[in-house]
Design a protein that fits this description.
This protein has 11 helices and 9 strands. The chain has about 300 residues and is of the alpha/beta class. The protein folds into 2 domains: about 5-130 and about 290-300, Rossmann fold (3-Layer(aba) Sandwich); about 130-285, Aspartate/ornithine carbamoyltransferase (Rossmann fold). A 5-stranded parallel beta sheet has the order 7-6-5-8-9. Strands 2-1-3-4 form a 4-stranded parallel beta sheet, sandwiched between helices. Strand 3 (about 95-100), helix 4 (about 105-115) and strand 4 (about 120-125) form a beta-alpha-beta unit. Helix 3 (about 85-90) crosses helix 4 (about 105-115) and helix 5 crosses helix 6. The longest helix is centred in the last third of the chain and has 19 residues, at about 280-300. It is globular. The chain starts with 11 loop residues before the first helix and ends in a 6-residue tail after the last helix. The chain binds N-carbamoyl-L-aspartate.
């Protein structure tokens, strides 16, 4: 039995296979419409979500399976003080696979050690968000043909943004990747990622504060929201929240084929006028999230090999 805690749990070859499967699922949905018949996905979400939870549920439904779950800690027995390990022991007897989101770093990992069904980390605190990374990699491969030879700008809350942490971890395994880390001083990428991931893998990167300065060099601009819920005080959040606003004027500085990604939800960091720019790919990215999660569920449940 396999869990998914980090994007590194799959080799790059396995990721290619997963993305090939997602392509086939996108192009031939009818082939897979009963693949998970009789199987159940539990979505255990202790933190708010729209895309991740609903795309998991849509993915399972597209495969002919069923879904059950909860969408907030308040509506689960966590509100009564139940531990994640007790919850997953019980869910293991109700469902065949579980996607879990939790505000505490490592909670899905703890769950996986007490589970008899595959557990997928659907976001743990400011740590990792592997299925968003699968979505991001799949979007890049679908729109650019391959993953590699790219200068990627990561912009916004690089300190608390778990999507950024997972994406850096995953991308350093590809050829000729360069990063431009665009953030205010207070929201820089954590030191452990700079040292243990970027430096250790000899990945070229620069840290800049001004988006305008970075724009002309980028093949991909990955915008992120300032993670309000992870700030210790509201004042700091208010000071930081509108630090970056991508608008049409700034888009003029970018390459003609640059791609703008964002895990969503967006707050103010991308002006709505950018939505009609052909380089804006964030809504397509959200759509690709369904196909790659279908491929993931199918793979972890090993339904293809039955
Ligand atoms: C992200 C998350 O939850 O980390 N959202 C998502 O899953 N698409 C990004 C965010 O909340 O800013």
């Amino acid at each position: 039995m396999r869990h998914l805690m980090s994007p590194l749990d799959f080799s790059t070859e396995e990721l290619e296979t997963l993305m090939d499967l997602a392509d086939d699922m996108k192009d031939h949905p009818e082939k897979y419409s009963e693949s998970c018949h009789g199987k159940k996905l539990a979505t255990c979400f202790y933190e708010p979500s729209t895309r991740t939870r609903l795309s998991f549920e849509a993915a399972m439904m597209n495969l002919g399976g069923n879904v059950l779950g909860f969408s907030s800690a308040d509506s689960s027995s966590a509100a009564k003080g139940e531990s994640v390990s007790d919850t997953i022991r019980v869910i293991s007897s109700y469902a065949d696979i579980c996607a879990m989101r939790h505000p505490k770093e490592g909670a899905p990992l703890v769950a996986s050690t007490h589970s008899t069904i595959p557990v997928i980390n659907a976001g743990d605190g400011g740590h990792q968000h592997p299925t968003q990374t699968l979505t991001d990699l799949y979007t890049i491969r679908s729109l650019q043909g391959s993953i590699g030879n790219l200068t990627i700008g990561l912009c916004g809350d690089l300190k608390f943004g778990r999507t950024v942490h997972s994406l850096i971890n995953a991308l350093v395994r590809y050829e000729n990747i360069k990063f431009v880390l665009i953030s205010p001083e207070e929201l820089r990428v954590p030191e452990y990622i700079r040292e243990d991931v970027l430096d250790k893998n000899n990945i070229p990167y620069v840290e800049v504060e001004r988006l305008e300065e970075a724009m002309p060099k980028l093949d991909i601009l990955y915008m992120t929201r300032v993670q309000r819920e992870r700030f210790f005080n509201e004042e700091d959040y208010l000071r930081m929240k509108d630090f970056y606003i991508l608008n049409s004027e700034k888009m003029e500085l970018a390459k003609e084929n640059m791609m703008v990604l964002h895990p969503l939800p967006r707050v103010n960091e991308i002006s709505v006028e950018v939505d009609n720019d052909p380089r804006a790919a964030y809504f397509k990215q959200a759509q690709y999230g369904v196909y790659i999660r279908m491929a993931l569920i199918y793979t972890l449940l090993e339904v293809g090999t039955c």
